[in-house]
Each structure stands twice: as structure tokens, then as C-alpha cells.
User: Fold these one by one.
Assistant:
Number 1:
Amino acid sequence: FEGFVPCRNPQCILYVNGKMVQGLDMKHTDYVLEADTEYKVHIYYYSGLYDTDYKIGLSVIKTDLRLEQLYYDLFLPYDALTVYNDDEFEYTETLKHLDIAVNFLDFTVPYSDEFFEGAENASKYLYENYYGKYNSFAAIADCTGHTHIDVAWLWTYGQTKEKVQRSFSTVVSLMKRYPEYKFMISQPQLLEFLKEEAPEMYAEVKKLISEGRIEVEGAMWVEADGNLPSGESFVRQILFGKRFIKEEYNADSTILWLPDVFGYSVALPQIMKKSGIDKFVTSKMGWNEYNKFPYDLFKWVGLDGSEVSAHFLVGRGRGFEGDRTTTYTGAITSDFMLTSWRRQQQKEYTDEVFITFGHGDGGGGPTLEMLEMQRRLNKGVLGIPQTRMTTASESLNSIEEKFNKNIEKTGKTPRWTGELYLEFHRGTYTSVAKVKRYNRKSEFKLHNTEVLSVLDMILNKAEYRSDIINDSWKTILLNQFHDVLPGSSIQAVYDDVFDMYEKTGERLDGVLGSAVKSLAANIPSDGKWVVFNPNGFEATDVINCDGKSVTVHNIPPMGWTVIDGTEEECRVEVAGGTDRTIENKFYKVVFDEDFDIISIFDKREQREV
């Protein structure tokens, strides 16, 4: 592809003989076809939101798989050389084996019998004398395939539905070639998109889930912002996420997976524990601007004392800035495995490091090269942690077991009590204030709709509109994604989001209005006013009654009271001109000519305050 910079990774869906088979992108550039067969190929291409001309180059190449394997057999030791200093034993020993191996190659007549015999002998030498002969490195790198997909960011929800098809079809394609390959999907919303948009591919994914090769984890419906949603929204994120996983795959989710979220509320450990979730995963705290977080493995304690196991992803390579930054889109190279292990703190508690590998955001996840490298690192390579392919649950359970045993031995527990505050992305608290207002208003409206609908169902046997209410919740939960609610997405995203909020609000208004009318019609009021309080506590508030602002006292929680409209009227008098005062029955406030406050008089206490 040419001109890919404005597009941020142009992407395609490849169809062979009418069937979706794989995504193509800057990291996944080929698909394997059997030779001597006729195919009809279609490519559905996404070029981004920019008005740019692109050139797409297509080739058909015949590959000899023997040479492909030889390439990786030689490339991994060569890659390992870049990790060592040239005066170290590991360097000289690895270079020695490479020298011996390549001397088996006969380039006199390329692709001759002698050439392939030499290639076979070169690989054979490395497997007999190098791979698996140096298993002395103490650490193990647990590798889980993953592709972090922002549900909306520099693209809209509509494009994400296609990113999901591209990325997950690539996973399925590679799993057919690599039976050891394990992959993790973290957001049920993405699977629902796939189910709706590409049911045949979804069926293949679901089959791999049933076989234990694809793991569905993460608990939340989407990877939501960790600060701005209400407590109830956090609960619903988990409820909708775990329910989908249970109904679709008969599985549970015990990991809260939020690798890219901009800080984490102190309320989360309590909500997690009460939801059957005992593990928390992120890497974002490694992005702190000033302070390196003291732990990568620790017990996270919430407001009420609830305690969960926290795991920070520590994946990084030598090119990363400073000593803090980590990533959730790792690679499988000698450097990445070794640097990630070195970055992990609390080594005295475990000999394992958990790494997710694969390109994100439409990058299609793991590549063939990563899977080939893993096969060889899994056998054992001099001076590099030995890899093994695991699910996230397998790795985290193993790490936690060792972690807890070493807590018992040492009597010391790495523990953090309180909020996980991220020293980065702080502008997300104020960016695009409109989306934050819509979210909060929608949370209130959903709460009120549910409370009054339940009252109407109990008292009047009315229908509870779970279809509209659940659909509305899914819209609100979707828009709490960690680039949408914080305000870090492009304008095109918000054009869609604001429209979604408006339509959802209208549907909820219909349900809410129907419940209020039904309830009011069945409450003896003698023509008076019925005032509802949808809150869980007794309330005194001001309502609009026939154009008057009336104060209504002591309305019972999730109940109502009947008034005749003659209750105490709430009035504020404003005097203009030179008086410049605002006055009610409690206070008189006086301003000077610049409208600075110069007096606040408390009428009840009869004194200046």
C-alpha cells in the first residue's frame, strides 16, 4: 500500500470464492492458497476518512515451506544476537552455532537437490545443538494472543464493525496453521458486532471458543472509562458483559481487563468482588508522567476493604522511552521477552511474566512471524526467557498461586489501597463536555425509568419494557468506552453518539411517561398533584406546579406524596438598577457595580455572613 500514513493502517477483508477468509493490513500482507487451483478473489478495502489516492499492489507468489522454516530457524538466533553484548558468552556461543549452520548451505545451484539438502541439514543442526540445549534461564514468558480494538477513536462504530471482521478472521486463519495458538477477546460488544455482521465467521470463532483456543474474558461490556461512569454503570458493564459470555459460551469471566483506561476508581475492587471477579489487569499505569508505580503484582484494596489481585502488563522493548512505559500490543522477539521480564517488579514472588502479543486497532493481532518465533523460543534459547502459549486465565492463575505462596513465605504483601490515578491524559475529564452531560443525564433517566416501571409492574401489573430498557443500557454502556466518554475521539464519532443519546432518550421518555401516567391514575389524589421520588432516600425538593416553584417536603424513597399545589412556594426576587440584589426567604445577597458580592445576610440568624 502507498500513502498509508493519513489512513493509519489501510485494511482489507479478503474473500476467496465468496467466503470471508482473512483480513489484510500493513502487518498481515499475505494469505496462503493451495497451488494448482483456480480461485476467485475479492478484496473489500477501507482507505480511511481522508480524500487520498491509494495504489494497491497484488502479487501471487509460490512459497517453498521448507525455506520459510529455514528462514525462521536462522532468524531467531540472529535476532537473539541483538540482545547480547558482543563480549558475552551468549553472543559468541550463539554466533558459533549460526556460523556452523549456514555452512551447511550450498548456493552453487539455487533450488537444486544439493541446495535443499543443505537447508535441511542447517535446520537439523540447530535443533540438535542449539534449540532446547540452553534452558538455564530462570523466567518463563506466558504469551497470549490479543488485539486491542478501540471501539471508537479515530474511526466510527461503523468502521469498528469491519475491524472486528478483519481482525478475528485473521485469527481464525492463523489458527488453522498453528494449533498451539491461543487468543483472548476482551469485549463482548465486539463479538456481538461480529455475530450481527458476519454470522458465518462468528460461528467459526464460537467453535474455537468451545475448543478452548479462543478465550473470552474482561467482564465488562466494553473497556469503559474508569472514572466518569456511575457506580450503577460499572455494575451494568459487568452484568451485561458476564451475561453475554454465559449465554453465548456457557462460561464465566473472572478478570476485569482494562489495559488502556485513563485511571481506575477506588470503588472498583468492591464491585469486582461482589460480581465474582478477583483479578484486575491494566498496563496504562506504566504511562505515568512523573512517578513509576511501585508494583506490577499486588493486592488492590477498595474503599470498603475489598481486595483483588492486580496484574500490570509489563511488555516493552529496548526502544521504549524511560523505564516506565509498557504496552498491551506486544511482539514475540528475543528482545521483547527479555526486556519485559527485566521490567517486571516483584520478581521475588514469581518466575513468570504475562505478555499479550499482537497488533491492535485493526492491525489484525498476532502475525505469522510472531507465532513462528514463539515456536522456537518455546524450545529454549540461550539467555532468553522460555515462552509458552497460554490463555490469560491460565497465566494469571499460575502467577497468583506462586505470588500467594511467596507472600506466606516472606510475610510481606505488596498492597495498594485507594484509587489508581493515572498521571497522564488528564484533559479527558473536561474534553467534549457534551458527551459527559449526555452520559450523566442518561444514567439518571435509566434509573428513574427502571424504578417507576418496577413500581408500575408491582402495583398495576403493567408490562415491564425490558427490551427498550436493556437496549438503552447497551447504548449507554457502549458510549462509556474509554475514548468516547473521555472525549478523545474524532468529531465523526460524536456526531453518531449524540444522535444515539437523543434517540435513546426519546424511547426512555415514552416508557417513563407511560409508567408515571399509569401510577398516577391508580393513586387516590382527588385531583391533586402526585409527586414521585425515584431516589433511594427521602427527599425534599422544588417542583414546577402550575407555573409556580413549590417546595415539597419529605417525599418517601422510591415512593410518592400527594399535594394540592398550595405548599410553600419557593421564590427568588431579583432587584436590578442600583439595588443589585437577589433575595429569598433565607438570604439577601448584595452586589457592587462590578457584580462582586459585598453582602450575604442570613435572615434566619439575622446576621451578616
Number 2:
Amino acid sequence: MRRRIGLLAGALPALALWWSGVTYGQDAATTDASAKPAPETIAQADIPSRADADERFARDVIQRSTGRDPTGKLEPRLDALGKSVREQSQLFKRDELKLLSVRRLESLERHWRFFGKQLQAWRRDLQQATGQYAEDAAELARRRALWEATRTAAETTTIAPALGSRIDFVAAQLALAEQAISGPIEKQIKLGRRASAVGENIEAGQRAVAAAIAYIDSRLMQLDAPPIWELWRDQQGSDSALLSMQAGLAVERQFMDEYSAANVNAHRLFRAFQLALLPLLVWLSFRSRKLASDDPEIQASTRVLRRPISSWLVLALLATLVFKPDAPILVHEVALLLALVPVLRLLPPAVYAVLGPWPYVATGLYLLERLSFLVVANAFYHRAYLLFLTLLTLALLVWLLWRSRPAGDGAPRSTRDKVLRVVGYLGIATMTVSALANVFGNVSLAEMLTAGLIDSGYVGLVLFAGVTVLSSVSSLLLARRAASRFSIVTQHAGPLLRGFTKLLRLAAFAGWVVITLNEFRVLRPIADALRTILNHPLNLGQVSLTLGGVLLFG
């Protein structure tokens, strides 16, 4: 008896180990089975209703696939865009781009950016028109997989023959719908590939123009032409320069046509806005004649708005620069030229009291600088005209500084007068360097310095005139009797007007700084440096931030 008990006691641990192993194997098998869930199937009771719904869905997909082609209007647009891009690519070779002026290159850069925006808009329209096909394809695949799983499950169970036939029929309908939708999806894929090819050409054009601009900027400190006395001996016209100018103007006209055609609705809205300004300014002009006020700001506003046509022209042309920053540069140049006379008529007397005849001088120099295209075909005439313009600007700056010299009465000069004299001396130094660079053969530097000084001076006057008109309009609108019904206007009209004027002046000054930096060819490197700094990653443990992201969040 004791021997049996001992054998039983010795067998119990082995039995326990065996049972635990069996249990573990079952648990593992159960775990593996749960890790791979069985495919979803449709219950037999739901097969008729689900079959009807999926059959209707399959018919709808087939009807959409065989109906009107939503890409019918998109394909011609892509063809036209691709043709324009190819023509633009073949118009200038890489070496020929280096012969163009920086102004024409910047316009070409805008043109390529315009192509890029057109391609992005086309891709959005393609996604909107054909996105339903991709959704239908995904939904068809999901439903067909569900019916196939249901059919597989039905083979292992007992199911009514009618239900089995219904399953096969719906699966076949879904397969037919997938076959029908494959045609539009294949066409969508082909259009996407063609769009990618157009995008590659656009990127190549952008890189070529950027390389040409970088090449011209790199020559600012190099002698890129013979001295002017050598050109005196050989005054032959430059056919390449003339052809480049003609090709550049042709590109500008093409860009203007394409830009206008692509923004028809925006142009109509903009023209309506410009036309609506005219009756408002005329009404304010008549009202200002009846307004009697001792406020000097109201009097200054009245004096400005008594010239409603000039005020309208300045605002309408300035709006072209502000609201159409991506327009062809030729449009901006024409707007600035049309603003010559209105700007001089609208500058307040205080400006002439401080600057003297400088507004007239700056306007005349800007007009002369724009006429330089008439002699661009002859290298010597172009250099001589540029030298004449530089020396004329230099002489006028010296005369203005001599004219504004202290009277000798010992009266201290204001900070404003000191700043203006410093600016005048900087202008004299700039024109001196430009003249020497032109004489000895650094034409790129001479053109940049002369055009930069003249353009920045005139653009500053245009922006000041625009701010003057806007502040005058705001002042007279706040002075309306009807506005006195609002307590906030009655109590805070003065601070509101001063704050609004300061904001306008700050925005105008910021715009003038950007334009001036671009004229002197330093905006691009400054923007690249700022972009590098703002996008530089800051790793704090497992968190990666950028300075630009932090500033944007702030």
C-alpha cells in the first residue's frame, strides 16, 4: 500500500507538468487564432437587403463611369499649359538668359511661378473631378471582398440555393463595376503623368532663371564689359541685345495675355473696385468744399481731395501694385509711369518745404531712366546714356545739398534735416561709384546703383502720396455728421485716425524697404539667410522645433 502511494506521489508532478503543457498549448493556439480574426461575412438574414444595396451601388458606379467624361475640359487646359511651357522653355537658352536684364529675368520668374500656380489649380480641379473614381474603386474592393468571404463561408455551411445564386450575382456585378471604372482611373493616371512632365519643365525653367539671376548678381563686383573708351572706337549695334529686348517684350505681352485670361473674374472685381473709388472721391471732394474746420488735419485732407481725379489715379494705380503682386512687371511699370503727374499734384506742401524741388527731380529722373530702353541695342549709346543719367543725378544731388546748406545764422539743424543730408551724401557716394564702374567696365554694378537709387526715390514718393490720399479719405469719413451717432467715433476719432495713419505709414515704409532692398540686389540673399535661420531645427531631447515654427505659434 505504501509502495502504491509513493508511486502515485511521484507521478503527480509529472502529470501536473503534462497538463500545464497541454493547457499552454491550447492557450497559445487560442491566442494565435485571435491574432488573425476571421474575415467579416454577411449574415444570411441580411443577404437580400445588402445585395439590393450593393447592386444599386454597382449600377451607379457603372453609370458614372460610362457617363460624361469629367476630364473633358481639363485635358485641353493641360494641353494649352504644356504648349505654353514648352514655348517658354525653347524661347531662351541658359546662356541667352544671362543677356537679359534683371528686371526681365524677374518678370520671367513671375511667369514661371504663374505656370506653377496654373498647374496646381489644374491638379486641384482634376482631383475634384475624378476623386469620386478612387473612392468608388476603394468601396467596390471592400464590398466585393465582403461578398467573396461570405461565399467562402457559405461553402462550409448549409445555405439556400437562392441565396447562393444571389451572392454570385452581386459579386459579378461588383466585378463588372470595377472593370468599368478602370477606364476613367487609367485616364486619370495618364493625365497625372502628363501633368508631372509639365511640372518638371516648370521647375527646370525656374531653376534656369534663378541661375541667371544669381550669375548677374555674382558679376556685380567684376568687370563684365570693356572700358567705355574702347567702345568709343567700335560703335556697332548689338543685334543680340536688340533681339533679346524684342524677345523679352514678346514674352511680357504673352504673359499679360495669359495672366488676364487666367484671372478674368478677379480682374472684373478689381476693375469694379477701381471704378467704385471714383464716385466716392468725387463725393468727398464736393463735401470737403462745404466742410469748415479749424483742425489742420481736416484742412490738409480737404486740400488733397479737392483733386479727386489725381487721388483716384494714385489709389487705383497703387492698388495694382498691392493687390496684384504677381502680375507681369510691365503692368507695374506702366502703373508707376501713369502716376507721375498725380503724385506731384498730391504731395502736401510740407513735403516740398522739406525736400525742396526733389520730388520734381526724382520724377524726371525716373522718366529718363525708363527711356533707357531706346538705346539698349547699341552698347556704347547705352553706356553713354547711363553715364549721362548717373552724372545728372550726381549733379542734382550736389545742387540740392548746396541749396539746403545752413544759412549761417547759428540756428541748430533739426534731426530730420541731418538725416536728409546724410541720405544726400550717401546718394552722392552711390552715384560716384556708379559712374566710375560704368567708365571702367563694371556695367552690372553701374546699372544696379543708378536704377536702384532713382527707382527707390520715386517709389517712396508714390507710396507717400498713396498714404496721404488714404489718410485724407479716412479723415473726412470720420468727420461726417452721421458718424457722430457712434460714440466710439465721437470720443476716439482723433486717436483712431492717428493710429490708422501710423499703420498706413508703417506698411508703406515696409513695402519701400522691400522694394529698395530688391533694387540693390540684397533682398534675395537676405531672404535666403532668414529662411535658413527660421528653418534650422532645434532639437530639445525628443522634440524637434524650428525658430519659424515657434514664431508662427507665437
Number 3:
Amino acid sequence: MPNTHQSCKVLSLIPPMTQLNTPYPSTAYLTGFLRSQGFDAVQEDLALELVLRFFTAAGLADIKAAALVQPEAARSASVNYFLDYFERYERTIEPTIAFLQGRDSTLSHRIASRGFLPEGPRFSALDAYEDDDSGDPLAWAFGALGTHDRARHYATLYLNDLADVLRHAVDERFEFVRYAESLAGSQPTFDPLAKALSAEPTLVDRYLQTLTQQALERHQPDLVLLSVPFPGNVYAAFRMAQCIKANNPSISIVLGGGFVNTELRELSDPRVFDFVDYITLDAGERPVLAVIEHHQHKRSIGRLVRTFIRNDAGQVEFINWAEPDIPFEQVGTPTWDGLPLDRYLSLLDMLNPMHRLWSDGRWNKLTIAHGCYWKKCSFCDVSLDYISRYETASASLLVDRIEQIIAETGQTGFHFVDEAAPPKVLKALAEELIRRNVTISWWGNIRFEKTFTPELAELLADSGCIAMSGGLEVASDRLLKLMQKGVSVEQVAQVTRGFADAGILVHAYLMYGFPTQTVQDTVDALEYVRQLFENGCIQSGFFHRFTCTVHSPVGLDPEAYGISLQPLPPISFAKNDVAFIDPTNVDHDLLGQGLKKAIYNFMHGIGLDEDVRSWFELPKGQLPKPGVSRQKIAKALGFI
């Protein structure tokens, strides 16, 4: 129930787990917006705090105690190595964390020497790199001057070893970028989460409960906003809510974010509201304002906006008072005030210069438009607000926001996190940055459309653009047309090469297992991708398996894509992914292993001359030859 007093202090929390190099931007946007409306709003990142609390000498001692409880025969190689070399881990953990936070750069020399850190099973990955005459397996990547980056890569492997120990000895659900993901993603009922939440808390849970309670004591909020962008945040968010309800039942809790927006739209299980009071859908500004006004007795419960509650009859009720959203130009500037920007960890998982951007560096995340201007791709959730409602802001206002963020954070790196940044807006933004002499480094996500000419690529590079990512999906003109991507493979080659010529790195999102995709389509797509790497069009890529979602054109009209959906069970909790039957009957899981192996090697410059069929775990005789000329992309680029 709402408190009786009129004030309302709002605490926004990021639950574990999200990336560790920079804060997830949802709380920064909400906090900035609420402050612009005159509210007392604060934020904390408990995802970062949880990892930092474990990665101390005291935290490792707690992990050791949990590991020793395990029967010796049940311990993994990671756990055994940790126990055998515990004193070295205990001695090195805090200096290594300080190094990854940028607070002790001179330690790089000791770490790079390979004599400082204990090297557990994760270091075996170094054996995969080709050695040269120097005896250094990473010389090809870093050369003579790359001591700092080499050290960060070793330190990242060291932390990955410790994450394995946490998972094997403390909580099998733990990962750095997701936590207990399987308990929430597309789970038709709340039962798996309810069972996990009623179980005895693990050491990870107890740490999280302590951090939650400490945040409440620091801020004394009336309202807590839990932002859950991914299935891997949900379990931790509910554990935090459980702690708040047990110790501070007068605090109201709002659950929102990307996971809620895509998966909880048909929520009907009232047990969810044993943990939270409100669940809001889509852009959070308007619903949260309505909740605050209800909390202050300025608005009846019947005038909440896009909000689930449990009503007096004990049933889930969705209330959606008709009220316009806050225009994108009026959502304000995100603020990182309250987030410990000097404590994030700059990791180096992947040596590829483009791929590393997702974990390397403290980027200010900013949206330059709401929604997607294309909103036609058949695999995308085009029916939902975060895609379908397209709004832009003026270049002048965007640069005002950029300057305000730089003044607050001291950081000039920006990651534009749009679904697909509009070329017209990017052009205007680049011109405004140059006109106002604002120096930033930025990267973002786009569609590889012909509007991105070499001239525009040069302009974007002049304004500070260092990298672009975009969806090539299945590199097949037939499937691109079926997907309604609005691009062709040759067009993508020309656009990406234009970026590369301007000095802009390019990452391609790739897909396999799309409806009606044949083995021939897959082999041809990999041949196209090989040629894109070979001709310097792309520097990085990632293959993911197509997933049919209920909100996409494929999920809404499967017959148009030659498939039939499998029946869903009764839904009372999460609904998103839906299995389907494809008459082509291709073993995409087996082919996917080869695609991922190939792309990993291509990113490291390996195997670009080989027959693409060699990457698959099938004899060449069982695979069709590529139906694509080996010079197809070179010809499209005018190289031959």
C-alpha cells in the first residue's frame, strides 16, 4: 500500500547480471527524467557491486569455504586449481581488480610477464593461438607495444576462472552477464522461479541480500524501481524484492524493463505480486510518473498507465489509463550520478579490435531516437512499442545531451544503443558535432542501407565514429528478401567497405536457422561472410540461432514463412519464444557449430583461404559446394 506522506524518494536498481565495463543505461534514463520532473531520484548498480564484493580477499575466502564443503570427487578442475593456489589468488585479486578499473596501470608489466597471476583452466585458450618464434602466443595480436592490452586479456582470463569457481562451488546459475537465465526466459509459469526463491539462499544470494539492504539504508527510498532488461536479471531482481519485502514492507516496488516488455504481457499469476507491487510495460517514464502520483494520493489506482497490479480480489489486473507517452525530446538527459564510474572493469575477452568494444571501456550509452525507422524485419518484435513507436530529437538537442554527459562523467566515449540509428539523424548529428567542435568517440548500430555512402561514412568518421554494427543476418538475397531487410548482400558489401575505407570498424550480426533455410543457403552464406572478411568489409561478426518470437511477423503469420508453430502450453508468466516446425528439416544445431568456429577464426585472420565446408563437422561429400563464386564480393566492389 502507498505510504501516507506526500514525498516520494525513488531508488532505481540494476540487478545482476549485466556487463561489467559500463552501467546499463535504463536507470540513468529514468533517474535523469525523474530529476527533471523535480523528484528526489537516486540509483545504484548492484550487478557491479555483487562482483566487486566477491572479488576481494574476504570474498575469495567465502568462496573457498563453500568449495571445501564439496566432496573432493565432485570438484571441478577450476575449483581444484583455485584451492591449490588459493594463497596466490588471495594475494593477487585486489591488485588485479584495481588494474582492470584503471587505477594501477603499472601492474600491467607484472601481469603480462605471466609470473604474477595463477593460471587456471581458462588460460588453456591461449594454446589455440598460433605461436611464433618469440614464444609469445599473443604476439600476433598485440605486438611489441601491447603490454597493457595483453595484461588485460590475462586478467580477464583470471576473472573467468574465478567465475567458473563461483558457478561450480557456490551457485551453478552464476555467469558474468546473466544469472539464472533459464528460470525466467519464456517460462510459461512462475513455478521455476518460485521454487528457486523459496530455496535456501546461496552465498551469491546472501551477498545480494546484504547489498540490497545496505542500498536501502543509504537512501531510505519510498519507491524502488527494478530494471530487468534480460532474462538473466530476473531471478536476482526477485531475490532483491524478496529481501525488501521481508525487511522494509512499507517500500513499494516497481518492476519494468526489456524482459517485462517482451515476455510478461500476458501475466496472470498473482504470486508475482508477493514480491513486487507494480509491473509496468514499455517506455517507463509515463507509467512511473503515474505510480508516483498514486503513491502521493494524487491519482487513483484506476488511472495507472500500462501497469499490472494484484487487485483486492487477489487477481492480476492490467490498468491502462489512456495517456500520451513522454515525447522523446522531453525524456531529459540520462545521468550517471550515483554510479561508481571509476569502479567498472575494462575487460578484454576477445582480442578482435571490433568485438572487444562490448566489454572494453567505459562507454556513455545514449539513444538518439526511440524505436526503429524501418520496423519491417520479419524476425523482429515490430509490434511492440520499443520498435514500433519511432521518434527523433534534433541534432542540437542531442549534442546538448552529449555535452551535459561529458561534463558529468568526464568520459567522451559514446555507444548509441538504438535498434537502428537513422542515417539522416546520424548525418545531422555528425555535422552538429563538427560545427560545435565537440570531440567524442562513438559507435552504434545501423542498417547497412545504401544511404550510408562513402561520403557519409567519411563525415561520420570525422565526427568521431570508430565502429558500426549492423544486421546482415543470413547472407542470402533470397532470405534477406523474405526477412524484409531491405538490403542485398552486394549492397552490404559496398556499404561496409565504405565504412572500412573511412577507418570505421564493422561488426555483422549473423543468423542461421531462419525458416526455409537450407544447407545450401547456409554454406553459401558462410562463403559470403568469408569473402566479406577477405575483402576487408567487416572485421567482426557473430552467428546466433534464429528464434521465433510471438511478437514478430514470423510468429504472427508463420504460414507466410513456410512454417507452422508448435502449440504453446497455458501461459501465466512469460511468453516470448515459440518453437516451430520447418519442413526443410535441417540440423541447424550441427551446422551452427561450424558457423561459430568459422567466424571465430575469421575474426583472427585464420582460414580465409579455405573451403568453407571444412569448418563443418560433416564430410565435404555430404555438403553441397558453395553456389557463390569465390570472387563475388570482390567483383561487387570493383576490385576485379
Number 4:
Amino acid sequence: YHIFNLNSLQALSNKEKIDYNQKRMLTDKIKDKKTSPLILLISTILVTCITCLIIYSFFSNYGITDDEAFYHYFLIHGFSETTFTFFHTFIHFLGKIFDHNLIGYRLLNFLLIVISINLAAYNSFLFYTKKDNSISSKDLLIFLNIVNVASYAFYAFIPTFSYTSSTIISINLWVAGIFYYFNNKGEFWSTVLIISSIYFALISRVHFAAAVYLVTPITLLLVSHKLGYSSKKFIYKILILSFCLTIIFLLIHSQYIRDILPIIGLLSSGSHESLSHLYLEQIKQFITHKDFQIVYICIFSIFIFHFIKYIFIKLNKNLYFSGSIIFTVIFLSIFSDLSGFYGHLFKINGTPSDGSHRIARYLLILITLTPIAHNIYTYIDNKITGCANMKDDRLLILYCVCIIGSFFTGLGTGSNIVLWTSFSLGAISIPFAIFLYSQTNAFGSRKMLTLLTLFVISLSVSGIIYREQIYQYRRNTLSSEQMFYSIESPHLKHIRIDKDSAESIDKLILTLRELSFDYNKDKIFAYTDVAGLVSSTKAKSFGEVWNQEAFGNFRELKNIETKICAYLRSAKASKDSKIYLLLSRPLTNKENKCLNERVLTKEPQINTFIGKIEIIPMIYNDFTKEHKEIRLIGPYQLK
């Protein structure tokens, strides 16, 4: 950010001002074009360290009572199990390579997302720098380092492959495909990337896939018009291939769809929020949430500064003032707010922790607001001083494509990306990294700005990873207790868990072995929140694997008993199957009645104590610790 002598500028004619502005920028480019080896070294070290931290985190903690157990179960069983998305059907076959080990799925998830975000970032970088013949590999590497660091917060919340992963991979491939086409007019690889994006959209959530279908031709058409391209044939080709992919996809999953159709309405009504409510809530939260007050502080600061500047010009007074003070105000405001809760960040039990999400929200503000604030600042400044406005159409196109694409990920994750931003920081960070590249003359000048940005993002993301995946993952016990391993589970090899969980898993597997449990026919009904015990074995679930308690504050848990009964009524099993109950607490009257409709209620042969597990519930239960005693009861016969 340059310091202007306003008196000198006032004395210039409009043409002279334009020439002055352009010559100044050209001089700076020539002087500062050389990429800083220090920035390259530091950014590479930071990416390497955070990558190692993530991979290290994959060897600890298991969401035994949480989402991860649910995802792991369906990844293990593939087509033979029905859920509300298709995320597991293809990845299940890759899982056979490593015997469905949880670490394998975590690393696979990591690999797919890293590949997709780097494809998106690389093609975006080439799109922006297309007319610049002096691009060096060092520039590109620093740029990729920044994008990768900003993308890494995702794994702390959902390390295992899931429908949320599918959404993130989809939007990354979509961005890569869009910009590959405009970089090379290479229809083949652009088509491969976009069709792959649509596939991953299909296996996440249907409404996200619908959004990708709709936005793809519109984006191609608008960007083509802006750049003067003719892309109608390519758009028609994409539409035809997308239609063919959908038909093939539906045919492959036809039995799966028939199995889920009877309860699809119930799943839809109980799955997170309705789409209209989701997006209305995002708009409301962005306007009213306390963490976004910094947006208004920034805008207010910009206008106050320029008002003072305008008064000085009118009074014909000298004013030396750097525009970077605006962003200093932003950083100081964020730091002031962060300091109030950062000290007790690790005292908060239960996840997702508010502290981690607040850090992610500030990253969202930094990444999305900075280019906008800078452009507003520059536009007003140029109007006051009479300098020419230097438009950057390619950055605007990049910004719109990446931000809009990321905005739609809320449809696939079922989450409010304003409040839970880590799910989409990857694609959002691309235009920010491009903006930083342009403002630092290919990372050759303003080195402190680049280093400050790298450290802010790296420290923030590292804090999130440590807090959410290492210190305490989801509802698990603290990291200091995660020192034990399951001996018997084929799917949890090399995963550190707490002593009670390890013993419970092993006792369950040994008990099933003693009972001559038939893994092809016999099934387990698990209640409540003990999906991880089932998925740690090779057993299949009777009804849904993750049965939760009813809870009035969350829509998906209000009708949970109705959902449990629907799954029980539609559950498939042969007449000679044995049904076992794996209970951490007694069934409700409604659930007991529904279960009795399907199984004979004669006195069970065994009622065995399996073990106990400690649970730190989510925020809506005020983080009150529970110790659940697990019992295996049965066998029962189907009626």
C-alpha cells in the first residue's frame, strides 16, 4: 500500500495522474519482481509441518459415538447398506485394498481433497497469470502453499471420507474444470474434471448435485461472454454427458434407491435444516452474528479515513497516510476479540468447539473481505485523487466463481458455512491467494504482509487441528487418555483410543465369537450412540447403525424415534437370522414397541456386560460427561 503526497497529485492533470500511477506500478513491478526465497522456504516449512500434524492426528481418536463411526460403518459395507446419500458406494471398493482400516479411509480422504484443491488452485493460478510470461515455479509453489494451508482446517472436523468430503472434492474439481477450459480450450480434460465434479456431487446430496447441474452451464456461459469466447458446443456437450452420467448412476444404484424410497421423506424432513431455512439463516447470521461485526468496523473505517482525507484535500493540506492502516484496524479488532476466549479454548469440552469455529469464521472474514475492502478503498481513493481505476477482470471472475461455488457447498454438507466455515475454506482461499500474489508483485515485495498472512492462517489452522483432532476429538475423552489400542478390531489397527473403549470393543468382538455370531446373517440393533462399537466389528446393523436420543433443539433429533421405527420396519434379514441388542440405555416405549413388531420377545439367552465408555456430549447437552454401560442382549428371532 503506497503512501501518496496528495499536494503533488493535485497539481497533476488527469492524463499526468494516469501516467504517474501506471509508471509507479511498473517501476515497483520491475524492482520487486524477484520472488523472495525466504517466503518460499517459510511457506514450505509451514505446509510440511501442518501436513505432518494432520497425518499424526489420523493415528489417534475415533468417533465411537459420533458421525465418524456412522461414516466408517457405511464405508465398510458399501452397497449392502442404505443411508441418505451415496458417499460410500464406490469408496467402499477402494477400502477393500486396506481392509477398511480407519486410517486408510482418513488418508484416502486427505489424498482426494489435497489433489482436488491443488488442481483447482493450479488452474486458477494459470487463468489469472495467462498473459504474464514471467511466471516462475517459485511463485506457483508459494501460491499453492498458501491455498493448502487454508484448506487444512477441514480434516480436524471430518477426517474420514464422508458426504461432506464428497462436496468439497466436487467443488474443487468443478473450479479446476472451469478454469482448465478457459486456460487451454482443452475440452477433454475440462470435461473429465467437470463430470468428475458432478459424480462427487451426486454421491454427496441430491440437492447439491442439482445446484452443480444448474450453475455449471450458467458459469461457463457468463465467463465465456466476459472473455469473448464461444462455448456453446462445449456447454451442450457437458449437459449431455451429465445427463448420461446421471442415468448410469441411477441404474447402478437402482436397488439401493428402491431400498431407501420408503423412508426418503422421513430422512429428508429430519436431516439437518430445510434448504430455504439454511440459506435464510446464513444471510441472517452474516448480518447479525457478533463475529461479523468486524465487517462493519472495516467499512466504517474506510469511509471515515477517506472523509478525513477529503477534508485535508479541500484545505490544501499535506497528508501522508498509508491505506494499510485500514487492515491494521481489522487485525487489531480481531486480536482484541480473540484474546478474550483463546485462553480457555482448551478448557471447552465437547465438539465442535465454539473456539475453533470462531477462529475459522475469522479466517473466512480475512479471506473473503480483504479483496473487497481493498477494492472499495482503492476505488474511493482514486476518485478523490483523480487517479485511473485499474480494473482486474480475471481476479473478479476468479473471486465470483470460487465464492459462489463454495457458497453452494452448504447444500452438500448440510451445514451453515457462515458458522462452520472450515468445510469450504479451500476454494474460498484461492482468490485471496491470487489477490496476495497481485498485491505483492508475485511475492517479491511487501514481504512482511505475505509472512504475516502465512503465520496468521497457519497458527489458526494448526490450533483448530490440535484442538479438534488431537486434544479431544468430537465426543471422545481427552488426548492424555488416548493411549490404548484395540487388539481384536480389524478396522482400528494403529488407532489410539482410551482404555474403556479399547476394552469394550475387544470384549464385544470376543463375545460375538463365543456366540458363533454369523456375520453374513446375524445383525445388531445398537442404541444409543454406539455406532462405533458395531463398525469396529464386521457385524451389520439391524435398522440404522447410529440411533440417537430425541432432542427438541435440533430438527434432525426431534423425530428420531419415528426415524428409528421406520428403519426397523424396513430392515431386511433372513428368517433364520439372529438379532442382538447392543444397549447403552433402555429403549423408550415407542422404540420397544417398534422392535417387538419385528422380533420375537421371548426371554433372551444372554445379557452380557460388554464394558463402559465415557462420552462428553455436544454443546446442547452442556458438555456434561456421561459413563455408559454397554450390554449385549439376545439373541432374538425375526417374526
